[in-house]
Design a protein that fits this description.
Elements lengths: L1 E12 L5 E7 L10 E6 L2 E6 L9 E5 L6 H7 L6 E8 L11 E6 L4 H9 L5 E6 L5 H4 L5 E3 L4 H12 L6 E6 L1 H13 L7 E5 L10 H5 L1
Length: 218
């Protein structure tokens, strides 16, 4: 783990309101899909997932820039050639590379680790279940075998029930607010998914709109 200087190339905003910031590293940069790091801009630091896949042209960060926090203001103000610092990569929630299918269950901007993993295009079946604002839908939907965008809690619970009932030994990657992660992981366990097949990542700062998933499933 080391500090890396990143040069801002451009920022693109998707129709659902998420911004994708693209950077070029000052030196060769390697990471694994699903890892994160500490991004430092404008005198402030915050952990964010690396939204790009290994081998992509740019190192990318996907987030909302409208919160008004100090670091979000600094990221919003970046122009081409401006720099940020990155400490990492750290951790990661990638499922083991055992050939089993993967179901990504994501909430809002929590889709960023799934984006990195899906873009890696592993040679195994992939399903995306994405609740909330459908960030990067136009990009990701064609890359997976099945994509489901539940309209509410009941639809989400139904999609989870169907995925858990497949019996194919799938791994489940769950990413979103802490409440969403807890509720979704608990529901998957109720449906017989072993804890070793649930890989979870709670995003600080996301609203816990998924906490009633369990209630909707009863």
């Amino acid at each position: 783990m080391a500090f890396v200087k990143l040069f801002h190339v451009r920022t693109d905003t998707d129709p659902a309101g998420a911004s994708l910031l693209s950077f070029r590293p000052a030196h060769p940069f390697t990471h694994k899909a699903g890892q994160f790091g500490l991004w430092i801009a404008g005198g402030s630091a915050r952990p964010f997932t690396i939204a790009s896949a290994p081998g992509d042209e740019f190192v990318q960060l996907g987030t909302h820039l409208h919160s008004g926090s100090r670091i979000k203001r600094a990221l919003s103000a970046l122009g081409p050639g401006d720099t940020v610092r990155f400490l990492g990569p750290i951790g990661g929630i990638a499922p083991p590379d055992d050939g089993s299918a993967v179901v990504y269950v994501t909430q809002g901007i929590g889709v960023t680790p799934a984006r990195a993993l899906i873009r890696e295009r592993p040679a195994r079946p992939q399903t995306l279940i994405h609740v909330g604002a459908p960030h990067f839908r136009a990009e990701l939907e064609p890359l997976v075998d099945e994509a489901v965008f539940p309209a509410g809690r009941v639809d989400l619970a139904d999609a989870l029930t169907a995925a858990a009932a497949s019996g194919d030994g799938s791994h489940f990657l769950v990413a979103g607010s802490n409440g969403f992660v807890r509720a979704t992981s608990a529901l998957l366990k109720q449906h017989g998914i072993d804890a070793s097949h649930i890989h979870a990542d709670g995003f600080l700062g996301l609203p816990d709109s998924g906490t009633s998933v369990m209630a909707a499933a009863r």
